[in-house]
Batch of 4 targets.
Target 1
Amino acid sequence: MKPVWLFMALGATITGMAMANPPKASGVPATSATPDDQYLWLEDIHGTKSMDWVHAQNAVTQKAFMESLEFDKTRGEILEVLDSEARIPIVHRRGDYLYNFWQDKAHPRGVWRRTTMAEFEKADPKWETVLDIDALNQAEGKKWVFKGAECMKPDYVHCLVSLSPGGGDAVEVREFDLPSKSFVKDGFFLPVAKTEVGWIDANHVYVGTDFGPGSMTKSSYPRIVKEWTRGTPLSSAKLVYEGKPDDLTVGASYDRTKGFERDYVGVQQDFYHREIFLRKDGHLAKLDLPSDADFSTDR
């Protein structure tokens, strides 16, 4: 999910543009609560008319930027920084390896790669490619954007790789085998949707996705989370929690820390408020936490 400030910035930008270039009334009937709301049709966030208006506004903005005398100079300076080999790789330890996702001029979509600690300490470490997104796109004729991988502790053999068709929140999820550095045939797979998924064990995952009409919140994120068993159709997944349409999103996770193994369900009510439940033997117990408190089980 994108940071709160990004949504707020986008909202402010779109609102400002709407006021600067007010769209004509669409003929969509106004509600009794807002009888004079001529922008009500923009509530249909996936509608053709709404998206046509957004694309038109984007074109105006792009034209204004690209006609600026500073555009090419600034673009070149930014690319120079983004493609610099002097950047310090940000790594995440998973078992015996340090993993990093790297993009540069030769790999604009990026490579997911790994190295050892001993190698990383060298001035010029050698990296082993785990997944080359540019090569994947060429092989599949797609424009995938890497959105991360959920790998199961403590062995880090099973991963769930998220790929976005263009960089948005909606992703396709594929199971990935780290030892062989390949996608798992007939493994866990979810088509493109705004999805939350995480491991319970090697044969079970928690999944919140588009299960069909009514399964998403008004914000277009998962409203329902289920427990899904390997080798079974998604339609047979067991219901864990069903949120309200006005919730932002819901999800579930399993903390496998030895001695602290627990299942949790989280309900994100809005950007700042949430409810956390402990799941045990199929029952949920709400944790007595302030709704605006951050919650984490990382140890």
Target 2
Amino acid sequence: MNIPAWQYIVSMGGYILFLLLMVEGMRRTPKLTAAFWLLSLLTAPLWAENLDGWFRWAKTVSVLIPTAIVVGGARIAWLYHDNPNKFLSFFRGDWVLKVLYAVLFLNIAEATVKDFATANYFNAICGVILCITIPFPRYKNGQRMYWVIGRGKPNDLLFYSTAAWNFLYTTWNLAFVFGENPGFFASSFCILMAAELYPLIKGRPELYMTARVYTLAFHILVRANADIFTPVMDSSSWANEQVLWFWGAINLVLHIPFAIWYFNKKRNNPTGEPPCGKNQPLMSEYAGTELDPVMRGKRIRV
């Protein structure tokens, strides 16, 4: 499809702006946002017309269901953090953070398997490195929390990784899409850039995962129901095997020293915790809540 450069600039710029505003709106309205994502699951009967192959189905299901049920439920539960209701208490539990960790791991692993299947080996190895360097929600002898739902409004999903991990995840993901389906590279570039830009604009790196969850989920929801991106930003003509090879190689050159640094910092930390971002909450800040191991399994009132 022959699309002029100005159309890419307008459509991609407009999509990024929309996504930034959408993330801001979804952060501010946890109840409305939870309702939106739950209702979005009702479109499932339409997905079969637009999803083709195991990867697209796995990606859609593994993103939309956790976004609607786990993220939405947890944000509502912490919005009413002083309510002892069993259902709300359940969604304030430690299992939520473990599930979200697993979803991110699965998201990367799915793409990594696809990279190996399409012989994008350098980038596939990067995916493995990203999987093993995702910080756990917390560590056995640790003092800090790496994943948490904020206790204060608007009860964001907060992810305390490093700027390096976030950047490497972005460039790895871009290279993956460039190889897996270059026709949607332009639109995928938009959601990845919006997720990078939002925490920078807000000055809060820990909001990266919130932005990533909502931009990815929206993009996947749209693609599962209709193809609105091909007419306005089809990037099939951008496909280039040589560029893909070099991109994967450059990614690997960046990922290997990061992995060495990551595990070296983790090994030399007395608590065994990996490096993290700034303003990371301590486990003591959630003492007396469902995230406190001492209180787990008890009915509590914060």
Target 3
Amino acid sequence: MCDFMCIVLYTRSTHNLTTNMFSLQVLFIGDSTNRGMMYYLIERLNETLQEWQKVHGTKLYPGVNGGKTLISYSYYPQFWISPSLRPTFEKALEHLLQRSHPLENTDRTVLVVGGVQWLNSNHLQIIHQVLKRENLLNILVIIKTLGIGFHLPVDGVHFLTQSEVRNLYKENLSILEAAKNYGYEVVDTFTITMGRHKEFLQGNCGCHFHEVFVTAFRVL
């Protein structure tokens, strides 16, 4: 697991975490699994999560960590749009970078890319090409790999057979190898979710194993 995510996951002190995240700009691009990681980071930094919309576009979060950590997010892929009209990954990444300007060409800028099952090794080549074109090759890139979701048969939801799961595993290995070649850091969520296959939510949320609960407190 990469150093950046280790800081986020294992820094117990909120003060230490917020200090480590000063002046960082963190960009997320991916599906709802990546969006969930972003909201976890926001909650850790703000000590609360005031909003958790199902964002399916591009959104900026300038008020995180007292305004000292800038976070932006773009949903990809936009599966509800016809494939012939759907923005390519390259265009989606370019749009996120442009919306997040100005960006510093150092590891103080972090790009987190990932999705449950759409990501493949070709996307990493596109990332490199876009960052080179934008003069951002020195930023920190983190690849969140694939996930084991959609392996439970549910009516009306895409379902993976055992053969398709094996192919997913092979693709994940290709992503890991490509990330190593490009010098990108990795969070191997495929391995993590494989070990938690019984904890996934049912129905349309078959790629998640967490929920947001609103707890009501009564003042006596």
Target 4
Amino acid sequence: MMFLLVLIMLTACAASPQDLSNKMFTFPQQTNRAHVRLNTTMQDFSAVTVCHRSFTDLKRDHGLFSLATPSNQNEFLIFWDDTHKEMEPHIRNGKAEYGGWDYKPNMWHSICTTWDSASGLVQLWFDGQPSIRKFITSGSNIRGSLIIILGQEQDSHGGGFDIKQSFVGMMTDVHMWDYVLSPCEIHNYVDELNFTPGNVLNWRALDFQIVDRVLIEDKFKTCH
């Protein structure tokens, strides 16, 4: 009975949103299992902005943010294609390729991705620098039973992980909005100034579950 009570308490704690300000997720090894699942009650999006910061030394393909629905495993995916040196936003199984970014290893990078279903345009902001806008898909929303995962790239709804696409490194300040963030707000995020936190995913009140070996540690900054 006591064990059951403790288990219920631990489950309740895990399900409560946490303020992860000045914290980071550390993914310390290559694996096809370890990941963080991010939870939201929102299930219908006509526009999206996702921002995050990551730090890695990987010299291969890897997923940075993976949102899947039962009908589309790449409903909203941010993926680094190391072969072509491109950051690739995938939306509703379409994608755009953005090359020319200085995606250096062993340093923090801030990446924001925006998409609007009315225009179908996607835009990437890499360390505060905007890309051109490209068309991916328009006319339909992202909707359904969402599964959002950090650390792995979903090839099926909530699974299908490939160890060669796993993320190894650190990640922090993950936010998601159900609208296109303004350039000023994106710059405020990149510069770690005051900005409106995500209304879908908010790093300061994050509902998440950790699966396997992912650590929560104090965020560090590189000294110059």
